[in-house]
Design a protein that fits this description.
Layout: H1 8-11, H2 14-31, E1 45-49, H3 55-63, E2 68-73, H4 76-85, E3 93-97, E4 110-116, H5 125-134, E5 136-145, E6 152-153, H6 161-176, H7 182-192, E7 196-206, H8 212-233, H9 238-253, E8 260-269
Parallel strand pairs: 1-2, 1-4, 2-3, 4-5
Antiparallel strand pairs: 5-8, 6-8, 7-8
Bound molecules: S-adenosylmethionine (SAM).
Length: 274
């Protein structure tokens, strides 16, 4: 499975657990209101594809207190952590080892399928999206957070973060066979799949809407989890990567500073006629 999960090391790292916690704290307050539009029945069946330690699965299970939620992932340590953290919500919320490239679920099973912070990190995202649509019932929805590393903006200091964000995602993506700009490409993929009612919204993670320490924790976790790999597979050295990240963190922590990460939230409906 390693070839289909080129970020396996980073995804299993301790820094990813704190990253996903900080990301959920930053993003969920703006994201949660978007779920109303799916008009789910109270006992909806929901899949969280690539659930990690269950930040999204648990929040959606709390948002829909009668829904049945299944989180799937291929990292057993994340699944174990999710099970122990959210045992109070079991068995309505459960976690299983399944690959989103080849789910064990029957066609047309779920009313809603979440896939948050995943498809930028894997090759062949269109195969995964087709698999997610397969298990969604006609009239059900996909709810995606496809990250896009051209949508992060920081002020310049001694270093210019624009140089980092120009160079690193293209080289990292080329080396891992992934699209780190998939946020802007997801609409086209879903259109080609002939899905309906495609929407693209943005959660704005910036220094006005999100506590500075929460935003800073995301960048710290990226620094801790990704600097080695950046040094190995991009033209930016490990030390330079750390210096860029440290400057971005200082920018966020500066009470007079401003920084923003635009996080796309993309949804689409599986046609009734499918
Ligand atoms: C950045 S984490 C996002 C976790 C979670 N969705 C959230 O919002 O907090 C990406 C997750 O996708 C998982 N993943 C990658 N490839 C996968 C696959 N083929 N099947 C299932 N999960 C996969 C990783 O193991 C990792 O836990």
């Amino acid at each position: 499975m390693t070839d289909l999960n080129p970020q396996a090391k980073q995804m299993a790292d301790e820094s990813m657990v704190r990253n996903l916690r900080a990301q959920a704290r930053a993003i969920w307050p703006q994201e949660s209101g978007l779920f109303r539009r799916y008009a789910l029945r109270a006992d909806a069946r929901i899949l969280d594809a690539g659930c990690g330690p269950g930040e999204g699965s648990s929040r959606v299970a709390e948002l829909f207190p009668r829904a049945e939620v299944l989180g799937v992932d291929i990292i057993d340590a994340s699944l174990d952590l999710a099970r122990s953290r959210y045992s109070a919500l079991a068995p309505r919320l459960r976690f299983e080892h399944q690959s989103i490239f080849e789910l064990r679920e029957a066609d047309r099973t779920f009313d809603l399928v979440l896939c948050r912070h995943v498809i930028h990190s894997i090759p062949h995202p269109e195969r995964v999206l087709a698999e997610l649509a397969r298990v969604t019932r006609p009239g059900g929805y996909l709810h995606l957070i496809p990250e896009d590393y051209g949508m992060l903006h920081f002020q310049r200091g001694a270093l210019d973060p624009r140089d980092f964000w120009y160079q690193v995602p293209r080289s990292f993506g080329a080396a891992t066979g992934t699209d780190l700009f998939i946020g802007r490409n997801t609409f086209s993929i879903l259109s080609a799949m002939k899905l309906e009612q495609i929407t693209v919204d943005y959660v704005v993670v910036d220094t006005l809407r999100v506590p500075r320490e929460t935003f800073a924790a995301i960048i710290e976790a990226w620094r801790d989890g990704y600097s080695d790999a950046i040094g190995e597979i991009t033209p930016i050295s490990r030390n330079d990567a750390v210096a860029y990240f440290d400057q971005m963190i200082a920018n966020i922590r500066d009470p007079r500073g401003y920084a923003v990460w635009m996080v796309p939230v993309v949804s689409a409906r599986v046609p009734l006629s499918r």
